[in-house]
Amino acid sequence: MIGLVDCNNFYVSCERVFQPRLEGLPVGVMSNNDGCVIARSNELKALGVEMGTPAFELQQWVNQGRIHLLSSNYELYGDMSARVREVLEEFSAGVEPYSIDEMFVCFDGFDAATTLALARTLYRSVRQFTGIPVCVGVAPTRTLAKLANRAAKKLPEFQGVCVMHADGDDTRRLLERTALGDVWGVGRRLVERLAIQGIETAWDLRQADPKAIRRRYSVTLERTVRELQGTPCIELNDASEPRQRIMTSRSFGRLTGELGELQDAIRQHAQRGAEKLRQQDSHARAVLVFLKTNRHWSDLPQYSPSVVVELPEPSDDSRAILAAAQQGLEAIYRRGYRFMKAGVMLLDLVDANREQLSLLDTPEREAQRERDHQLMAALDELNGRMGKGTVRLGVPRQNAAWHLRCAHRTPRWTTQWRELPSAKA
Fold first, then answer.
1. Which of 62, 87, 147, 215 is deepest in the core (most CB within 10 A)?
2. Containing domain of residue 362, as a range?
3. Total Cβ atoms within 10 A of residue 271
4. Backbone phi, psi, residue 338, to 5°
5. How many Cα atoms occupy the beta-carbon half-sphere of 295 within 13 Å?
């Protein structure tokens, strides 16, 4: 058996942990640069506010105090997600993050009664120790666990916890009530194609012949059918598996054509990419740099270049990667354009522990390489202990265009010493 623990309205719930006054109020969290609504409380949903609604369309309601819109606080959300995972790991050795607010938990080796009791323990413990409300769905496969979690969240009779077995009348009734579009991995186009065959519910899909589904559609859909039948077929990618490329980019808070501001943005992205590179014990052989104008502003000249700069040797050194990134920026920058985004991608990654050294290396070069490694290790240790960005190459300008707009961001309560909550007697 495998469980799926899903945090309810996660971004909003994180905000409410430290601002109890928001409980029961319509609250929304906005995207980067305060563009549109990406998370909603149940109260905001009840007002008819859809996901993706532009923030400016809701400004009148904000001014009237009818709703509360907050800027994204990803540092807080990431830390709260890690805390939820720590609680789950107290009860299970197998915890697999699926997203920032969803995690699969191993329930192997328990009988039915113990499984239900453990699921209810997780439901209570996460709320008790983190303040985040969750729903728990448990089933023999990940696809069924997704549906069980959805039932735990949508149907009051489950009270936040649903344990679904492969067979049984309860499982059949639940699958018969589940529209095909609510099955994990079944998109809108598949729903339309399957409807022609008379397959309209999760139960209909479960009853289909897996081999026929594979011949007519794909092996992916065949796996979904078998998962609905109770046979595990889907494994998540190992979160610890090294990535083949590392991208760091972000849209600007406002358009800019200033070279200095673009250099600041590229500097931040290059350093962050190098940190990620070292975290997975990889070296990069090349650095890609790109700029983008806003194609939706047709009255402005358009120019979205990119360039790849090869490194002298595979490296995870922030200085080497930053030098290559700045070289690339200088090669593609043109005056007269206003850019909305810049980014850095590290390419052709290799395992740092298996890198082949040149036969022409001298003892002096090997000693220098070891000093460089120690320097980067010290930088990462200080940033890990004192906070991200404590030690960095260069100082970013204040109020630069590339900074995100986040006029309504709450404090980073759990990760920044200066923003820790205070209590007054």
1. 147
2. 246-386
3. 23
4. -115, 115
5. 4
